[in-house]
Amino acid sequence: MISEEECREAAELALDQLPLWVREKIGNVAVIVEDSHPRHLMGIYDPVGGVQRIVIFRDTHPNAAEVRKTVLHEIGHYFGMGEEQLQARTKMFCGCELSFGDRPNTHTCPVCLAHPGVLPVINEQAVRYALQIALALESEVAPRSIFHRKNYFYPDNPKGYQISQYDIPLARGGWLGDVRIHRVHLEEDAAKLTHVGESGRIHGSATSLVDFNRGGTPLVEIVTEPDLRDPAEAREWAQLLRTTVKQLGVSDVNMEEGSLRCDANVSVRRAGAEQLGTKTELKNMNSFRFLERGIAAELERQTALLEAGGQVEQETFHFDPRTASLTPLRSKEYAHDYRYFPEPDLVPLAPTEEMLRHAREALPELPAERRERYEAELGLPEVTARQLAFDAQLGDFFERALAVADGVEPGVLANWVAGELSAAQRHFGPDGREVDPAHLVAVARMVVEKRITHASGREVLHTLIDPGSSVGDPEEIVKARQLAAVSDASELEAIVERAIEAEPAAAEKVKAGNPKAIGPIVGAVMRETNGRADGGEVMRLIREQLGLD
Amino acid sequence: MDDVLELTVAEALRRIEDGELTAGEYFDAYAEAAGGDELGAYLWTANPGPTATPPPPESETRRRRAGDSLRGAPLAVKDIFCTEGIETTAGSRILEGYRPPYTATAVRKLADAGARLLGKTNMDEFAMGSSTENSGYGPVLNPWDRERVPGGSSGGSAAAVAGRVAPWAIGTDTGGSIRQPASLCGIVGLKPTYGAVSHYGMIAFASSLDQCGPLTRDVTDAALLLRAAEGRDACDSTSVGIDGGVELPSREDLDGLRFGVPRELSAEAEGIEAGVSEIFERTLGKIRELGGEVDECELPHAAHGLSAYYVLAPAEASANLARYDGVRYGLRADADADLIAMYERTRAAGFGAEVKRRIMLGTYALSSGYYEAYYGRAQRVRTKIADDFRAAFERFDYLVTPTSPTVAFKIGERTADPLAMYMSDFCTVPMSLAGIPAISIPAGLAEPDGGGAGLPVGFQIAAPAFDESGLLDAAHALERAIDFDTRPPGVRP
What we know:
heterodimer, A: Zincin-like, four-stranded mixed beta sheet, 13% strand, globular, B: Amidase signature (AS) enzymes, 35% helix
């Protein structure tokens, strides 16, 4: 059991390290340390009614790390968010918080502005996150990795060098899907430059503005082996990578905000050739679509060049998504001798056993594993398995639905989630209401049990999501909208009879052996029942009454 | 009562404690002296009178914890240390007018222990030099002979302490920048083990070598200052502090201690003046008289130290000085030019010749195709030198050499010959490369080659890493036996 003093210190530290917005909300919180709770609770945070205080019970905490977890858990619980979201994310080598879209140069300090005399200090949280990524990619973590200085002059690079990893990266090797990973390393981001003037580039611009908010953001660079063969495959793999990292909860991996960025190395070779051709590098592809298009454009360019007897030069292109064109970057901007040498201000990065264990334990089920399990254990078809596994949100919803399925087949639920739910969510967009997985299970069950038709099931689901409708549970919606299937056999038989009478021409054609002519009769039934009749049953009754079976 | 300016800090603190002197009187005496400095030692000095801003409450607790040990003692700080709101230039025109938004850890720790900032001292630009002639703000004069240099790069700190315009000072030592000026000015200079004192806020020259240390009138003051400044700092990953802290020295003999004399850095070294050799030999005799053993030893790779140093230090400097680009602070020349021209003109106007020379040397040494031949090789030499010291310390407790091959040289004498200037650090660079502590204590006066009045000669003692307490103890015993009078003739009453 942790000592009282240690416990208090750990709790206070955890409170101090909460993101600014949380600290502002909760104000001053008193830490109370008590020996134990009769129900073996770990902690209590109840700010309503009285003094702001958090109580930590010592007996359930072996060490400071656990106390920290409890604090984050309790505060997180109150705000309805995960512990992870409460961990302030800070820059790679200083304590400035990460931000996006804030007023320029408001998240800076002497360190990330490279004032004289400052020194970098490695952000342990960033290392922990990077370790999770490395382990998710089955990459081998180096016992000691080294930071280097990569020297170049540019206004987005205030020290005149970027601290990055060079010959001994954080991790080497690994796989994601069927693509081999070459290496995974840590580095810091550059500041953001805005060039005011016609060209939008530094040359020819009237003024350039620097925003150092982004400067120093931790970056994990993942390099693959040359295992991707066409633009669509590259796009699909990048999406898998995104889902995988998102699943880890270590980054927003948002291409538009730049928290996922992608450069592509592209080369072509003659069919049958062993050696890869000369490669070029494409930069600035800030969406999956542009990535695919950029690679396609570059493949086309290289192929045409080679077919005309030319040679591919090793160069770097800037992809312009508006025109889908590739502009070579001026060699002055990119032909660098970076003069790498070991960063003397840092000691080697040696992850402890504890850090590795934590990273391993924090690994959730990853998309590739999930897809495999869906196919092998649940018998889902490949397309559905992939869709659910690669869309973390859908997949997690499916998992929660499975947990309360109570007899509804996984395959049925999978179709509802991957098909109707996903379509309905797209339809309503971000305004749509969250669906309770138990409600989706209820809808699927009613359809399976033929209490409502599939079309009615879809309607119930839409009602659940529609922000404009009054909330209800599926049973209430079925009742309110009178969606219950016409299940009384004699009632349905009578309706079918009337429909055949109303469509004599169609009836004749069906009897004469044209099964496609049955449509108008079915339509008449559905009109009368407002679509509440089961289609299969209706078909069966029509054929029966026409004397076809 | 003696002149306050003649007291060591330890003596002054004792008088303050006994009520014979007030902290205000002590500070004001120095503030007035510093304000009238004629040596060019200062770039900025504090005004006499009570502190404008009372220390923040946070530092009160720290002061109590440190025993309120420094009681307002005035402290001269090399202008390489950032001081919040007070101009900090590192002797360079490129930082003219730069007021840092933060204070260096070493300065803050000393302030927390009760020291009061007296002034910022002149230095070779970015600590590159051995004479302080490379300052962008004019040279510093040696108080023993104003036609001569005080050494460098902490020449302002050394001259101020020797010239009685500061009771003590901090400086930085990359290849000898504390020890060599201490030697040339007849005072004590200590370069602690790499990592003993935080680098945070110390403007970087060669990060893997730079180390903060004291320049004082005696060994006890050096211990007193180091004790307050050392320690691990969360802002400096390379800092470790000194395990067990620093003991104030009390030793009066050298019984049972073994002193090694590396041939390569004494008898076999080129360019050691006769007078320096003579004082060195005389001091070895004193060690024996105090009961120490003296024997010759080898540091086979030490003679290559200077070559390795002049690859490694410029290489690191070339990156460390890249941030002075005119974009965020300091000088910006020709704001209307395009980016590259702005960079070029800013750096051309802001840096002095020696700084440019070293940036070019370092950039070249790191260039693709040359990296292995220069930087890689120099690193291997550095490892060998560290191994040499480790081996020597198996046989010896301390190693001793002359600090500087020569006494103070004339202003302008070596400015045209960079290699001659670089030789000033021949005996001090190997310890820097090995990261071990070394102290220079004044051992006597010697005539320069070619004759003239006697000038101070320093005696260097090096110790294994983190054995600062033992080193200070040995230096203390030897200092007593030498009984050097640190007062230059010009300031003698």
